[in-house]
Specification:
Blueprint: H1 2-15, E1 23-32, H2 36-42, H3 60-74, E2 77-86, H4 89-97, E3 103-104, E4 108-109, E5 118-120, E6 131-136, H5 141-144, H6 149-152, E7 156-159, H7 164-173, E8 176-179, H8 183-191, E9 198-200, E10 210-212, E11 215-219, E12 223-226, E13 231-232, E14 234-236, H9 242-258, H10 261-269, E15 280-281
Parallel strand pairs: 1-2, 1-3, 7-8, 12-15
Antiparallel strand pairs: 4-13, 5-14, 6-9, 6-11, 6-12, 10-11
Helix pairs in contact: 3-9
Amino acid sequence: MKNLSAVWLFIFSTFVPLSAFAEKINISLGVYTEHLEAFQSVLSSGQCPDPRNYLVSDNQILTEFLILCEAIKLGGLEPKIEFKAFPVYVRLLRELDGSSIAALAFGGWRRDLDISRFYISPPIIPPNTFTKGFFVKPENQHALMANSREQLASLTAVTSAGWKVDVESISCVGSKMISARTYVNMFRMVGAGRADYLITTFPAGDDLNVDFYGVKLRPIHGVKIVFKDSLHFAVSKSHPDGAKIFAALELGMQQLIADGTIDYVLAKLGIINHNVTSWKDIGCIK
């Protein structure tokens, strides 16, 4: 009789999806205002798509959200997600600390996340993995030839003042820097010639050129910046459902790391691009 019960238990656990037992929960997630429309489009069906199969082009932040949602589901919750949009990273962290949102919909750098205020997930991207290139207009031949720290110091970069790691990386290289509030404006400022370059992630595949918001940019060949910090999801400790959400997130993240899903998705996105493995890391932030 015990053997028969064991067989039925095996069959039941194999063919009945975990979602049938998942606890339904409302989760408010903080997003950048400029990304809100894309996030809402992904959830148009009401369900989070599988991060392995959903095409997000080169949208890193949207990819991180898909990982977050999949991890929460694997951890035993069925999330009904509400997005709350804010314009800048600093404001998002402030709202997270104040519990008006349960979590960020994307990853934050470990250095920015206070463990006394936030639950911090296993790394989405481990230290010394996240890589960015120096992207310039193809017509800007002077900038394209700047493949040393000394030459880059003669150029002007654009970034967001709230992106502390990017700001420090550019400052360490020695470039003059101007600030833009949004990613769109960064591309437009390089396209208009107001800045020589921006730093951003490489696309997946062999073609390393990018074309965003009508602006085509090319990386300076042979040089890159490798960030020493790690990227994590953050959940508010002051939110009433924070502990429950984090428990599910942590459990799901462990599974996604173990089965190779996160590495696969990062490679598909271009975060891990073996075409630039031999390029020189000229970053100087420790």
